[in-house]
Design brief:
By secondary structure, the chain is mainly α. It is built from 25 helices and no strands. Its main location: membrane.
């Protein structure tokens, strides 16, 4: 069983003895710093793109638009493909790096893949902080993107595999919690560096990304490799020793034997990506891909990337816009903590469905206020309405932070069987980064054309994804990873129809046709 740990299920589930050991907690905290780096990159880009010295140096056209009265629509003054490419290039690079990260995660292990991510981060940070022209800036972002691709591939797998089952959800959400802390840290840094005279504050903002980059690199040197990865690569004794160490007990033989068996099955799979398309793996693939697409179409990353720019568009001054972004970043962190404590108690579905209602209502209210109060030529919202918009955005961010934010990563990492887990995680990260790139590249142009309707666009998607969760997403709390098929997928009203091997389907079809009908027509 990949997750390990203790399960309190009464559904025939296997019980493994496991303590919550210090080595597990420390390893998970160190590994989750990959999220800190990712979050900082998300938060810092929106901040520096609202700083005048940065815009003057790299995007003079945008700078002129923001300063000249009547030159352009309020909603369109930041609409620039180059500016959007600065933000989105990171995610396009991450998308490409994911395919290589899938190989290293499987062949070299989760720990070494995290180390590679840390090295990419450090080099990218140096280039960004020292950038002299747009090309150097973009190259630095691309290297940071490679780090994101490797980290987002390895860290969720690492956390799911090393954590005991009963706290797997909480420990896995450490990754998303660190993403939110990274965003908040970036917003605070941007708020401080914006006040530096001399025009070099943006360099400090980009350069301080070296702090989480160093943490991830050092963490990867000191954490233990997961027993799943060691056994998968043939290091049985080392895997057994690590399992004994992280579980805090000598009674690890049942779990060890299940891991060995899962590894044996995994090694029989020669083409994991092709196997993802097999009938029995389609439910996990559909759920994972859908969660990534829906996560981006909540609109959260667009708002977190461009929070200072968005608030500036709504008429906030530069400092006020950065300050408002700090507030939303703080709400993001606190709400993710709620998820850490509630995900293994309330379950995944409850959090997603409640958040859907909360996000839908807050987006519609924001759209109505902006539609009435912010026109193409208005200079600002009144103070009272401005505060109310910030409160509504915080309400929306809070709902996302305890639902779609962490669960978009948690659920795919715990649903794939071992033989397709690396490939499945690779597809998950790939789809996430693809749609993150699309949103980052398109948001400012969408804001220009849709104006306040951008919030109605996102609210429509939130309604659709809530229906998807209600009808198609099964509950996975407290279920050991290697028992997902029997206890989750085979019990679901729709997905159980897919839980038949291809060979079995062929045999049933032959028998059925011999009798003149096709008994699998409903499968």
């Amino acid at each position: 069983m990949a997750g390990g740990g203790f399960s309190t299920s009464g559904n025939g589930g296997t019980h493994f003895e496991a303590k919550i050991t210090p080595i597990v907690i420390i390893s998970c905290i160190m590994a989750a710093t990959g999220g800190l780096m990712f979050g900082y990159d998300v938060g810092v880009s929106g901040g520096v793109t609202s700083m005048d010295p940065f815009l003057q140096k790299f995007f003079p056209t945008v700078y002129r638009r923001t300063k000249e009265k009547g030159l352009d629509s309020n909603y369109c003054k930041y609409d620039n493909q180059g500016l959007q490419l600065f933000t989105s290039s990171l995610y396009l690079a991450g998308l490409t790096a994911t395919f290589f990260a899938s190989y290293t995660t499987r062949k070299l292990g989760r720990r070494l893949t995290m180390l590679i991510a840390g090295c990419f981060f450090i080099i990218g940070v140096v280039l960004n902080a020292a950038a002299q022209d747009l090309a150097m800036l973009i190259i630095g972002r691309i290297l940071l993107g490679c780090g994101v691709g490797f980290a987002n591939q390895a860290v969720p797998l690492f956390l799911s595999e090393i954590a005991p089952t009963r706290i797997r959800g909480g420990l896995n959400i450490l990754f998303q919690l660190n993403v939110t802390i990274g965003i908040l840290f970036a917003n605070l840094v941007n708020y401080g560096t914006d006040k530096i005279s001399g025009g070099w504050g943006w360099r400090l903002s980009l350069g301080l990304a070296g702090f989480p980059a160093a943490l991830l690199t050092l963490g990867a040197l000191f954490v233990v490799e997961t027993p799943n990865s060691l056994i998968e690569r043939g290091y049985l004794e080392e895997g057994k020793e690590v399992l004994r160490k992280i579980r805090g007990t000598d009674n690890i033989e049942p779990e060890f034997l299940e891991l060995v068996e899962a590894s044996r099955v995994a090694k029989e799979v020669k083409h994991p990506f092709r196997n993802l398309l097999q009938r029995k793996n389609r439910p996990q693939l559909i759920i994972s891909v859908a969660l990534q697409v829906f996560q981006q179409f909540t609109g959260i990353n667009a708002i977190m990337f461009y929070a200072p720019v968005l608030f500036s568009t709504l008429g906030f001054g530069s400092s006020a816009a950065l300050y408002s972004a700090v507030i939303t970043g703080a709400v993001n962190v606190l709400s993710t903590v709620v998820s850490v404590y509630s995900v293994d108690k309330l379950g995944r579905r409850i959090l997603l469905l409640e958040a859907g209602v909360q996000m839908l209502l807050s987006q519609i209210i924001i759209a109505i206020i902006l539609g009435i109060k912010v026109t193409d030529t208005s200079d600002n919202l009144s103070h009272g309405w401005g505060i109310f918009v910030v409160v509504m955005i915080c309400t929306y961010v809070a709902a996302f932070a305890w639902s779609w934010g962490p669960l978009g990563w948690l659920i795919p990492s715990e649903t794939f069987p071992l033989e397709t887990r690396s490939a499945g995680q690779s597809v998950t990260v790939c789809v996430n980064l693809l749609f993150t790139f699309v949103m980052a590249q398109a948001f400012l142009s969408m804001l220009c054309h849709f104006k306040y309707g951008i919030f109605l666009f996102f609210s429509g998607w939130i309604f659709v994804m809530s229906l998807f969760v209600f009808f198609l997403l099964p509950e996975t709390k407290n279920v050991p990873i290697e028992e997902m098929t029997e206890r989750v997928w085979k019990q679901h009203w729709l997905w159980k129809r897919f839980m038949v091997d291809e060979d079995d389907v062929d045999i049933v079809k032959k028998n059925g046709h011999a009798n003149g009908y096709d008994p699998t027509s409903r499968l």
